[in-house]
Amino acid sequence: MQKHLSFIIQLITKNLKRKSNKIMKNNFKFTLPDFPNNNFEFESNIFSGKSTLRQNGVLVEQSKEKGKPFLIKRTNDEIVKAFPKANIPDISSQALNIDGKKYPMANKLKWYEYIVGALPIGLLFSGGAIGGAIGGTATVINYTFFREETPNTNIP
What we know:
Elements: H1 2-23, E1 25-32, E2 35-45, E3 51-55, E4 58-59, E5 70-73, E6 79-86, E7 94-98, E8 101-104, H2 111-118, H3 123-149
Antiparallel strand pairs: 1-2, 2-3, 3-4, 5-6, 6-7, 7-8
């Protein structure tokens, strides 16, 4: 009996670890109008802020200069700087700023997904600052889940 119980606990723990790594990362697949024959994949850690960009499966170099732009190659080997920026008010998504134009990496959520996703912020009123922090974190995780279900289309 005890062996079975410890096996079940190990199985649950292993599954939770796998899911927590997925929860902490946003992953967006998209195309850009300036790069019609390229597929991009952006991955960012929600809490640490570390991010990577892949162009056709190849890791894109990230500059060390202010704003940490990604150095995307065009077909003629010209380098374009793409700055990852927060996409306000949708805090769970980001946009790439290329030559002053903002390109969202994910589709917008529907109006009701924003409302349902933000319900945990209500903990601020009953739990104070700690409740607000937990509610804010839960809101970002909710938006990540909702976005996971929405297929990304070509961004104009």
